[in-house]
Amino acid sequence: MKKNYFKISCTMALITGLALITPTSQAIAAEFAVIVNAANSMAGSEDEMRRQVKRIFMKQQSAWPGNVAAFPLDRSPTDAAHQAFLKNILGKTTQEMASHWLQVKQQQGTTPPRVVGASRILLRLVGKKEGGMGIVNVDDLAGAPTTIKVLFRFND
Hints:
- By secondary structure, this protein is of the alpha/beta class.
- Helix content is 44%, strand content 20%.
- Strand 2 (63-64) and strand 3 form a beta hairpin.
- The longest helix has 20 residues, at 2-21.
């Protein structure tokens, strides 16, 4: 009986200790970056760039300044970069975006941006396409090709 009590007490102390030192997802905010092709001439304040990116991503605008055709790329709906982009840059929920794309498809025949799962593939595609744009976790920028640049960063 005393051995069981001792084992239970030690187990509870260990669990409590781990819970206290384990960081929560809210304590550590992830940082993300909107990337574009290095040839992109977009300039301005961060607010201006955020508005421009929002218009291009939502297909309300089809070209960057300089009349370069925009080629926005998205991430998987479950990807943290996608979710942070929806919330912090677009100011939309998943349901609102689904409704937006349905409306755009019906009115203009336009489809949502292509979904790219892996960051390294997204980096390569943005680097190859002059009007390319995408969202990545800043940790994925290590070793990124020189054909891309960070337009701006944002936190979750």
